[in-house]
Design brief:
Helix content: 40-55%
Order of helices and strands: HHHEEHHEEHHHHHHEEHHHH
Strand order of the largest sheet: 1-2
Structural class: mainly alpha
Distance between the termini: 65 Å
Length: 346
């Protein structure tokens, strides 16, 4: 027996939000035919916002305010819900800007290491720079020549396809001037997604992985875990999903000891400390890496929009911070006099 789904009208969707406890929604129109009616204008404004954002998107952003016992949303106005959506949109843009800088730096360091050690096209031979044998915990596979051959085939196929479709002027010039099918390593990295760059790092030999991690002042396990977390956040930003209310299923390690004083935690019965899996943890990671790349990186925009999303200490704890003041501690710039970023050119 097939299920039949009926699309609710926007006015019915609005009524459903009101029925479930969201305040500030008026469905009564004192003079519905009058274009100058304040109640009519408010209703039309709410309907327009609902039609722009979507019922299920708003329902997602309202979920932290839902009380399971009453079956209703509490302490939530419709205008606050709409503002929350647009503030998170701004928050995603600011977060993505920082992630893109991390991605560019990672690719630059990968290109420099592979180009310096193996030449412009040495990366095409995975046996030169990858882990050759033994168990690789990052891709959860025992390495051998067959695994490497498949990884090499898959990666080079993506690079060739990316180069053929690229609008990058340097890659276009390369394809016109030489017979090589793939570009040199310093152009190749511009064709990679962040996930593919992480895959290259995971496939590297132990020595090569450590060389990259050292430039980020961390251990290999930490860097790969942080990058995977950042890649998840990047995908959420690019697909316009709810970022501010994210709860990580897999928690990466906390970057620094002082970061633990920023993050909300709960002491378990056995005495162990359980740290948050909310958005505060990815932010700590992103900002830690950004300060490693460039200690003078401006975090003002990210700090400002997060402050707008965090009116109370209760909300701060909901996002994974101990308090609003601790949240602001995260954005304090390093006291270093020198810019720690490394600029590498070819």
């Amino acid at each position: 027996m097939s299920n039949h789904f009926k699309q609710l009208r926007f006015i019915d969707q609005l009524a459903l939000l009101k029925l479930r406890g969201i305040s500030g929604i008026s469905l009564r129109v004192s003079n519905y035919k009058s274009d100058n009616s304040d109640s009519r204008k408010k209703l039309l404004k709410n309907l327009n916002k609902l039609s722009e954002v979507g019922y299920y998107t708003l329902k997602n952003y309202a979920s932290p305010f839902f009380n399971q016992e009453t079956g209703k949303y509490e302490r939530l106005q419709f205008r606050t819900l709409i503002a929350r959506y647009y503030r998170d949109k701004h928050f995603k843009q600011a977060t993505l800007h920082a992630i893109e800088d991390i991605e560019v730096t990672l690719n630059t360091k990968i290109a420099y290491l592979l180009g310096e050690k193996y030449g412009a096209f040495g990366y095409t031979n995975f046996h030169l720079w990858c882990q050759l044998n033994g168990y690789n915990p990052y891709i959860k596979c025992r390495m051998n020549k067959f695994v490497l051959q498949q990884e090499e085939y898959d990666m080079l196929k993506k690079i060739v396809r990316g180069a053929s479709k690229s609008s990058n002027k340097s890659i276009s010039e390369f394809e016109n001037d030489v017979e090589k099918v793939v570009p040199p390593v310093w152009l190749m990295v511009n064709l990679l997604t962040l996930g593919e760059s992480i895959r290259i790092l995971e496939l590297m030999s132990k020595k090569n992985r450590e060389a990259i991690a050292n430039q980020f002042n961390c251990k290999v396990d930490e860097l790969i875990g942080w990058l995977k977390c950042i890649n998840l956040i990047r995908n959420i930003c690019c697909h316009n999903e709810n970022l501010i209310d994210i709860k990580l299923k897999t928690k990466p390690s906390i970057p620094r000891i002082e970061s633990k004083d920023i993050l909300y935690s709960v002491t378990q019965e056995d005495g162990s400390v359980q740290y948050t899996n909310a958005i505060a943890l990815p932010l700590v990671i992103i900002i830690t890496l950004m300060k490693t790349i460039n200690s003078k990186y401006r975090l003002d925009d990210l700090n400002k929009i997060l402050s707008m999303l965090t009116p109370t200490n209760r909300i701060a704890r909901q996002y994974g911070f101990k308090s609003i003041s601790k949240m602001h501690d995260l954005f304090k710039s390093n006291q270093e006099d020198e810019d720690t970023s490394i600029i590498i050119g070819y």
